[in-house]
Specification:
The protein has 138 residues and is mainly alpha-helical. Helices cover 81% and strands 0% of the residues. It is built from 5 helices and no strands. Helix 2 runs parallel beside helix 4, helix 3 runs antiparallel to helix 4 and helix 3 runs parallel beside helix 5. The longest helix has 41 residues. The protein starts with 12 loop residues before the first helix and ends with a helix.
């Protein structure tokens, strides 16, 4: 019998992990990851910029609409209660649908909250603007 020789074969993913080689699938995964990070970063940047631009004017707007300290305290308390309820809702939906759709729902909720706050000219409008942000922003 002849001695067995090393069998040549094509590299697979285990060889790629061992030797540090890249396979075609890894490049595609890395590209999707980078695209997802870029889109997520732009969404967060837009939200932070929106809140940063409107935050200095919200207190003045509350004062103009007649919202005193008790009103601000009750808005804060209501927002905290809505976040408690929203955490359960978003958590269950996240288990069923995945994290990505819930993150987008959070972005949409924050954008809706800002839009409502900018359009409404009453104290009730400010109360309504707290709902989408508080329920879906986790």
């Amino acid at each position: 019998m002849e001695p067995t020789s090393a069998v040549s074969r094509t590299p697979d993913s285990r060889d790629a992990l061992r030797t540090g080689m890249k396979t075609g699938g890894e490049d595609a995964q890395r590209a999707r990851f980078k695209r997802g990070v870029l889109i997520g970063s732009l969404a967060v940047f837009t939200l932070v910029t929106g809140f940063g631009a409107t935050f200095p004017y919200m207190q003045r707007r509350r004062d103009e609409l007649g919202c005193d300290a008790a009103c601000i305290g009750s808005m804060t308390s209501a927002s905290s209660c809505l976040r408690l309820v929203g955490a359960v809702i978003v958590g269950r939906l996240s288990d069923k649908m995945g994290r990505r759709p819930m993150l987008w729902l959070s972005v949409i909720g924050c954008a809706a909250s800002l839009a409502i706050a900018l359009v409404m000219d009453s104290l009730n409008g400010l109360w309504l603007s707290a709902i989408p942000s508080s329920l879906f922003n986790h």
